[in-house]
């Protein structure tokens, strides 16, 4: 929890997930009201609303009084681009009281939205969602291992949009991107179908936002009537024609700088872990996510130059800029990454106050959330209290002192979260360390009448392919001859389009059951000998807190046998004390592959 001075007189009650509190008077704090910083004042909360944004007089009977020297009160932050399929508890703990989701299974959203409508969503951020995005067969959004409806023809757009809104979409997100800018190949909506879908959305009084990755696509989407773009394209700096079009059509843009820096190879989120008020709310896996990047080569200097130039022009033209992270992707984390996004926006030329507005009043106005994003009478009492002045130093948003959801303090939830993480860490520390075999060998490969036999001193080996995510990749395991005449493990296969991140290979499961956490900290890494087709392959390491997002390190399978040693320290975020799975795989490409493994073992400390 924060060590910042917070004086509270009154009672805050926590019962399960049911939080309760009466009126709250926040005394003598500077206020950022969603557009500007105001001098110190008192703010009264009652019945889930801001009862008075400039209260004068004695503390009302029965009210909880809060004082915090040197603090600033601001509207709860809004992340305008997330994928809210995970980490539902985190955003609120980290000061993000509203999430605008750009694609998630609606079944998952319905309970959240029902509790929100009933005024009972006090332990999570408010959620508004696009639900199922609008894409084509084989388009972006179809590659994640579950089936979604798709749109191919303009004449079907009206019924398609009607169905999405009937399902519960609050607004419509459309994909107009063939993926080529990022080195992948998708089908995409054609311009007539995109235009028809936008018009069908507008006829129903809803916003239509569009995913693009290039300036040409952005111009098409804006001309077709898009209300906003959910990414800033990075293939080129915005030109004058785009700026004029954006201004004329009165669109808004969500740059998603935080995810772009991961795409461009920089783990910018690691700096968030230096702030205890954030780091203390994250388990090891969530901390590890902030250390990830989508691409290993750091090209972020080019990204920074593009963003400075493009956002500078858009800002000068008065095009609204909204803060959004694309959280749910590697390198971004729900709740936490918005604080990084705000910092990046200031580095790109927005003032600190403009960045704060981009996460409060600007998205509220853009998405028609008329009771949110400002500190004013009658607004939702979704608030963030921080030490310092974020209108001068944007990093002060990380100095979280208190969060209120509908006027109810979130600090009991933060305390419970911290205690749960401490207990989980203690349990992990008590887990017995797996004793390593004397020779360290994990891969006991042999042949029985020409058939491969895979054994291990503990755990088990098995084929590992992306079919669990509806992928279509394949691999055949067979017995070969190793560098010293021993039996080796041969892998012949093909990575095929189907899942977004195809993989195929072999996996070592260290536990008695699949994905049972096992303490491998007696080793400092894994070693093996490898040869193959000259391509690059990967070690994928999974651990308990990391869930199904692996840490990875690469190796090359050259034509001659060579030894590879990969230490756990090279796997960002990985905790060997709770190892659940180790994969040696071909991944993140398509086409045939062939490599061979021998002498697989652990490197002792």
UniProtKB/TrEMBL annotation:
Residues 1-20 form the signal peptide. InterPro entries: Amidohydro-rel, Galactose-bd-like_sf, Metal-dep_hydrolase_composite, Metal_Hydrolase, Metallo-dep_Hydrolase, NADH-UbQ_OxRdtase-assoc_prot30. The keyword Repeat does not apply. Residues 458-572 form the NADH:ubiquinone oxidoreductase intermediate-associated protein domain. Residues 72-407 form the Amidohydrolase-related domain. The keyword Repressor does not apply. Gene3D superfamilies: Amidohydrolase, Urease, subunit C, domain 1. Keywords: Signal. PANTHER family: ALPHA-D-RIBOSE 1-METHYLPHOSPHONATE 5-TRIPHOSPHATE DIPHOSPHATASE. This is CIA30 family protein. It comes from Chitinimonas viridis.
């Amino acid at each position: 929890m924060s060590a910042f001075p917070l004086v509270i007189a009154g009672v805050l009650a926590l019962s399960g997930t049911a939080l309760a509190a009466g009126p709250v008077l926040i005394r003598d704090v500077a206020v950022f009201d969603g557009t500007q910083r105001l001098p110190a004042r008192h703010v009264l909360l009652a019945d889930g609303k801001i009862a008075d944004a400039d209260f004068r007089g004695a503390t009302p009977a029965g009210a909880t009084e809060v004082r915090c020297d040197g603090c600033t009160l601001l509207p709860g932050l809004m992340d305008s681009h997330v994928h809210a399929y995970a980490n539902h508890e985190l955003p609120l703990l980290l000061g993000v009281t509203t999430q605008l989701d750009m694609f998630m299974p609606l079944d998952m959203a319905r309970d959240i939205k029902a509790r929100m409508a009933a005024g009972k969503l006090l332990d999570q951020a408010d959620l508004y969602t696009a639900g199922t995005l609008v894409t084509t067969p084989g388009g972006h959004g179809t590659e994640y291992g579950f089936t979604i409806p798709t749109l191919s023809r303009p004449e079907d757009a009206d019924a398609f949009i009607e169905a999405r809104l009937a399902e519960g979409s609050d607004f419509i997100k459309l994909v107009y991107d063939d993926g080529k800018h990022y080195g992948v190949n998708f089908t995409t909506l054609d311009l007539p179908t995109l235009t028809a879908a936008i018009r069908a959305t507008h006829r129903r009084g809803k916003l239509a936002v569009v995913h693009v990755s290039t300036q040409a696509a952005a111009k098409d989407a804006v001309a077709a009537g898009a209300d906003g773009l959910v990414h800033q394209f990075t293939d080129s700096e915005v030109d004058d024609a785009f700026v004029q079009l954006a201004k004329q059509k009165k669109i808004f843009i969500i740059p998603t700088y935080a995810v772009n820096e991961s795409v461009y190879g920089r783990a910018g989120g690691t700096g968030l872990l230096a702030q205890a008020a954030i780091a203390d709310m994250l388990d090891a896996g969530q901390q590890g996510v902030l250390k990830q990047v989508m691409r290993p080569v750091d090209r972020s200097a080019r990204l920074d130059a593009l963003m400075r130039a493009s956002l500078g022009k858009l800002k000068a033209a008065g095009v609204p800029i909204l803060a959004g992270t694309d959280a749910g992707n590697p390198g971004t984390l729900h709740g936490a990454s918005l604080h990084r996004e705000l910092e990046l926006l200031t580095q790109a030329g927005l003032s600190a106050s403009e960045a704060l507005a981009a996460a409060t009043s600007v998205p509220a106005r853009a998405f028609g959330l008329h009771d949110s994003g400002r500190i004013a009478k009658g607004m939702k009492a979704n608030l963030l209290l921080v030490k310092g002045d974020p209108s001068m130093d944007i990093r002060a948003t990380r100095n979280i002192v208190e969060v209120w959801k509908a006027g109810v303090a979130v600090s009991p939830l933060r305390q419970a979260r911290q205690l749960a993480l401490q207990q989980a860490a203690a349990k992990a520390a008590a887990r017995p360390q797996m004793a390593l075999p004397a020779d360290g060998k994990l891969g006991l490969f042999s042949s029985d009448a020409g058939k491969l036999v895979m054994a291990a001193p503990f755990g088990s080996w098995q084929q590992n392919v992306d079919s669990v995510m509806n992928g279509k990749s394949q691999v055949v395991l067979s017995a070969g001859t190793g560098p010293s005449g021993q039996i080796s493990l041969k892998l012949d296969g093909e990575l095929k389009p189907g899942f977004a991140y195809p993989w195929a290979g072999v996996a070592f499961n260290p536990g008695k059951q699949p994905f049972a956490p096992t303490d491998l900290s007696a080793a400092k890494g894994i070693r093996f000998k490898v040869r193959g087709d000259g391509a690059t392959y990967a070690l994928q390491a999974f651990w308990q807190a990391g869930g199904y997002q692996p840490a990875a390190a690469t190796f090359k399978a050259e034509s001659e046998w060579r030894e590879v040693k990969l230490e756990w320290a090279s796997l960002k975020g990985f905790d060997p004390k709770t190892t659940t799975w180790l994969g040696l795989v071909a991944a993140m490409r398509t086409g045939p592959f062939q490599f061979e493994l021998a002498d697989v073992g652990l490197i002792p400390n």
